[in-house]
């Protein structure tokens, strides 16, 4: 059995899973110390379905803690950004487009040094060890304990980042935390470097939070290994989480999409997650969220790490219905739904009221919406259906039919049929979909590199890339027999010689539980 | 080029310049300040699907202005005929440019290297291309050198090869040109014609790591006044500002782009198919858009090679290179590059006139549809065929 826990800003959800079946599911309030909320959720599971701690094979946690810490500028470590690439790149030094408040919050200092590679693997310049030692002295003198290292084209050749890290380790001792950009982002220096700096700033906090999570789980007598879920819906062990907290940033929407897939039994589908104010719509492809292709801005900083491609629209259970149903949202009564909506004795006509009036749901006091005009209600629900259908349509990547799964507290707003898309699936346990998503997470391996493809060698290069992604998944803890390629993308790059092609391959597999005990 | 044609072109240029001056007078800028967001956004729209990452271009320009101060902008028709004008641009792969950023001083070095070879002292810096990142690179060079920048460019849009500029058809030579990498290497090409400049500079750029800064088409103020498209930097700035203010006021930003460029809204819909292939270093492809809303039932086919070069509506060619074909996000008017086109995107296509001189016979030999391998005569932005007035 596994336990999945989702620690959100408001609720801590937990599920007990037997295989892909939900044996128990519980919602508790998130506490400021996190630990007691998790303990309460674990106790709740025990009450629903008693289990012996030894029966648990693994505990998977999804958390929004790290991204919230960044947004609130809370507990960030003083950080140095060291970039290898001189004389290239000096036109735009590290931290160049950051909000000044955030630079101050991380005590950010930028250093440029020689190094870096060309697109084809040649070096731009050799590492200058004396130069790096001078930087190390300055870093030490400013009391900085966390360093982000980036090197030009490190996704193609990572040797300089690794070499520089070893030198800083020698100079500054074992308690300095090192974050290397090739392990965090992809081609696009500023965005990859930014993600690496954010990661470095979260390192202190990561130790603290991971210790807390581990303590709350072991406090329940559970000795099974603990994993955190990543942005792409796969798992990392807690040592990895200490080193790469940034990889947890978007695990919330990812987990709820993955949970929706398992609950509905559909591994390629669109997921509509309806909350009180907004709805998130994403697409699962073979069980995994499609990733955003461009840059993602986090706390005002451009990054390019792996994030799910999610569109949000301003429609939720608390959306106000006005103009005789011609307009629904984006304004919402939000958390005041339970006092302001008609069905709860309030005076605001909300989307929830309309759904109840039409008999789609039984929430609150049905008699309080008997006066709602049926034409208004129908218009409002038709409008909502059109908007959901439109966004799902946008998210499709091909004209093949794409089933739709509705989850979340407000999913009563999604009609049984969406125009042009067919039947909507509504799984049970929809309110704890994110904890389920964490519990069923798998392990991945990825390759993202520019290859020179010579005449007639295309299939060989493609095979190599796929194999390397699968090998990486196994190295990350996947059961070899379960590993398969789930995502493959090949884009020719203009103006580069030799049929340069960027290949991205991603493999995933089930967690090899036996080997970890 | 014969004398008659030269005279005719000069007349047309004068008429056009007058028209542009009138339309941009109130928006013409006298300097570029440290906020280049609007300019970069407008330049990305004029990039017609290509032209590189405007984000990096904006950051480079803003960083240079923060360090060296605002860059004075000089109108093409205010230029002294004896001015010594040196254009500067980035050459190479945008994918490389976003990873191996330029070194400090690389832009000034390209200009200085060419000036030294020519034995001149530059008085002005210029853009050779208004679309994409090459609208902002010269801002950096001008700031670094403390020289004014010309409010205009050699294309009025973006094209992929060195010889594809209006000065080419006025007999201005691309070479001598300088080429500089970020390591401090530099070279000079002095070639027999502009096509050779492209042919030799491309492999040199690859050898230098695929992202170089070049200075090319050095010319006099008189030559700039004859051959340049005036007011394009102000136009980029105005385009970006117009898109942002349309969005803020809940007006249609795509319609605002069409109006500002005196173009037309062709059709809007959903991207339903994208095919790509690489031939001789260029990413070619086609995309199909199925009409939605008022355009339901219509079908748009785009053909591109780095930039959007041909658009067909229901099987009929509606606009081709050299006129502008811009694919914009249906709601935000954010430009969609040929590399980022993908299934499901809601886009609208705007076409707009290029500088009329692009429709002369010798210009069409450089940038017409047949040069890019499409078997058809050019089609103007409004769907008309043949030589425009």
TrEMBL record, chain A:
Domain annotation Hydantoinase/oxoprolinase N-terminal: ranges? 2-171
Record domain Hydantoinase A/oxoprolinase: where = 192-390
Which PANTHER family does the annotation name?
5-OXOPROLINASE RELATED, HYDANTOINASE_OXOPROLINASE
According to its UniProt entry, this protein's organism is Saxibacter everestensis
SUPFAM superfamilies in UniProt: Actin-like ATPase domain
Name-wise, this protein is: Hydantoinase/oxoprolinase family protein
